[in-house]
């Protein structure tokens, strides 16, 4: 039985929003309105569910995810910061930076025109002592605004609160729910250059739509919106973005999934990651006091 994390004091919550001890006892905000259900863990500031009314779940979280203070949650929308994957320097560990291991603070929860808008924040003080903060020991403020409605909008603003120019990478590592990734097509990347993390690194150029026939792990240089066509569920998922110059697409396929204890051989077909990001030479550079916002809107429509 995991220890239950004491629930923080929070400002008044609007109707349809609760703060509870979720999986592993970790604090979770649960949203239930006429438009959608949704879920955000303070751990990682991580959305772990969004189901708009009349649809099957759109955001996928692994049935084997670990919900533990020192682990990253497998699934949902992990926020990768201040680096992506192995980062741009050899000593950058853990993978994807430290934000997904940190506990965010809820600043505000409000009803807004029928949607629920949540604001969470993470600062260097909150993250102090986490693995990786020794590699990137700089003052910062991340503000994550999550809006649950008939669409899901996640806007992450990074502010350089230090006295020096800073650079970082970031991603919204979204796990999207699909019937079977082997039948999925992705459009919106035609003509985009990409690095292949599985085959010959490249750079390559995407020709036409992207389909999946094996492990896929690509970093696209692209500011374009992406559509995931899912014939199995009879729907299209659109990922619309502002402030993002990279898109990562990832499917671990069977062998890699089987080797990951928090994913497993039986679940990988039901997800595909589409990750709006700013990575490698598209990493963000901020002057002291400056900020950058990446806004991503997730939507679903029947096809
Ligand atoms: O296992 P994680 O650290 O969560 O990373 C999961 C995946 O994230 C991204 O999609 C990367 O491009 C992949 O290379 C990586 O395997």
From TrEMBL:
Enzyme Commission number, as recorded: 5.1.3.15
Catalytic activity as recorded in UniProt: alpha-D-glucose 6-phosphate = beta-D-glucose 6-phosphate
Keywords: Isomerase
Keyword ATP-binding: no
Any one Gene Ontology molecular-function term assigned to this protein's record: isomerase activity
The protein's enzyme class: isomerase
Pfam family, any one: Aldose_epim
CDD domains xref list: D-hex-6-P-epi_like (cd09020)
Any coiled-coil regions, as ranges: none
Gene3D superfamilies: 2.70.98.10
InterPro entries per record: Aldose_1/G6P_1-epimerase, G6P_1-epimerase, Gal_mutarotase_sf_dom, GH-type_carb-bd
Protein family according to the UniProt entry: Belongs to the glucose-6-phosphate 1-epimerase family.
Protein name: Putative glucose-6-phosphate 1-epimerase
Species this protein is from: Georgenia alba
């Amino acid at each position: 039985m995991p220890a239950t994390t004491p629930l923080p004091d929070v400002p008044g919550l609007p109707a349809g929003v609760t703060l509870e001890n979720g999986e592993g006892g970790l604090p979770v905000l649960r949203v239930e309105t006429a438009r959608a259900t949704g879920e955000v863990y303070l751990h990682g500031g991580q959305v772990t569910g969004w189901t708009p009314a009349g649809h099957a779940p759109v955001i996928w979280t692994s049935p084997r995810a670990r919900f533990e203070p020192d682990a990253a949650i497998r699934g949902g929308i992990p926020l990768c910061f201040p680096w992506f994957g192995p980062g741009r320097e050899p000593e950058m560990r853990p993978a994807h930076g430290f934000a997904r291991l940190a506990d965010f603070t809820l600043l505000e929860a409000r009803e807004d025109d029928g949607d629920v808008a949540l604001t969470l924040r993470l600062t260097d003080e909150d993250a102090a002592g986490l693995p990786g903060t020794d590699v990137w020991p700089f003052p910062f403020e991340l503000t994550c605004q999550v809006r649950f409605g008939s669409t899901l909008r996640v806007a992450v603003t990074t502010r350089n609160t230090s006295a020096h120019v800073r650079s970082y990478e970031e991603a919204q590592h979204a796990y999207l729910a699909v019937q079977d990734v082997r039948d999925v097509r992705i459009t919106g990347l035609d003509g985009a250059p990409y690095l292949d993390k599985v085959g010959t690194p490249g750079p390559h150029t995407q020709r036409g739509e992207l389909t999946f026939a094996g492990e896929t792990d690509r970093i696209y240089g692209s500011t374009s919106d992406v559509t995931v066509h899912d014939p199995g569920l009879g729907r299209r998922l659109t990922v619309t973005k502002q402030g993002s110059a990279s898109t990562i697409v990832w499917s671990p396929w069977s062998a890699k999934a089987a080797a990951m204890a928090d994913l497993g051989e039986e679940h990988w077909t039901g997800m595909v990651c589409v990750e709006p990001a700013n990575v490698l030479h598209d990493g963000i550079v901020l002057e002291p006091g400056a900020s950058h916002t990446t806004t991503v809107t997730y939507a679903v429509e029947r096809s």
